[in-house]
Amino acid sequence: MKYRPALRPLIPALLGAAAVLAACTATPLPPDAPQAVGPHSAGRTPAPAPQVATTPGMIIKTSMATNARAYRQDAASHIYGQNSERIWKGRMPPMLYAIGVLQVEVDGQGNVRNMNWLRAPRHAPEVIAEIERTVRKAAPFPVPARLGKVVYTDTWLWHKSGHFQLDTLTEGQD
Questions:
Q1: 10 vs 173, higher pLDDT
Q2: CA of 130: how far to CAs of 17, 28, 59, 117, 127, in Å?
Q3: Which of 31, 62, 121, 156 has its CA 20 to 30 A from that of 130?
Q4: Is 131 inside a domain boundary?
Q5: Residue 100 belongs to domain spanning
Q6: What residue ranges in the chain does DSSP mark as E strands?
Q7: Where is this region: Disordered (predicted)?
Q8: Given a cut of 60, is residue 20 above it in pLDDT?
Q9: Cα-based angle 95, 100, 137 (whole degrees, multiple of 5)
Q10: CA distances (Å), 133 to each of 79, 130, 136, 165, in order?
Q11: Is-contact 86 163, C-beta < 8 A?
């Protein structure tokens, strides 16, 4: 193999740097520290657990989501927690009264700043109003600590009884 004369002096330095890097090892986690598992977790440190910020008379959760899709899980769980008596238990029936796709903007303090219907159930304006009321009443949402603010989208599956599921946490349909 031929080397260019100008690169020849660099070869020992590059080999030395490669040897140093190969000798480096990762510092192991303490035995009680949580470890990430799964095929995509190699070399990653697990995200810290969500924290809870408190204000007088109110507990505000903190989301450690790193993208809107992950935040959607936290938001759906929050809405379910605020509306446990209105959540449809089990699989939804095949014919639903309304289905709506709503985009929600949450600021850095968990407040709802904006809502935008991507698919509104126009045949059921009372459902549109009730979903918007439910979202506003659920505020403050978990604070999107890593995102600053977030715009997430979820699909509302609405039964004529007024019970609902969110697509993110749905148990499916018969």
A1: 173
A2: 63, 51, 24, 13, 5
A3: 62
A4: yes
A5: 64-169
A6: 52-55, 58-63, 98-106, 112-119, 143-144, 150-158, 164-166
A7: 32-54
A8: no
A9: 115
A10: 12, 5, 5, 16
A11: yes
Mean pLDDT of 62-88: 96
| Alpha helix (H) residue ranges in the chain | 10-23, 68-82, 125-138
Instruction: Supply the mean pLDDT for the chain.
Output: 80
Torsion of CA 69, 74, 77, 78, to 10 degrees: -130
Residue 37 lies in a domain: no
User: If we measure between CA atoms, which residue out of 69, 30, 62 comes closest to residue 48?
Assistant: 62
Indicate whether 35 pLDDT > 50. no
Of the pLDDT bands very low, low, confident and very high (cuts 50, 70, 90), residue 60 is confident
Q: Which two tokens stand for residue 93?
A: 């029936």
Q: Is the per-residue pLDDT at 16 higher than 70? A: no
Count up the domains in the chain and report the number: 1
pTM, full prediction:
0.67
Contact 118, 131 (CB under 8 A): no
- Torsions phi, psi for 169 (to 5 deg): -120, 20
Is 24 a domain residue?
Answer: no
Q: Is residue 80 part of a domain?
A: yes
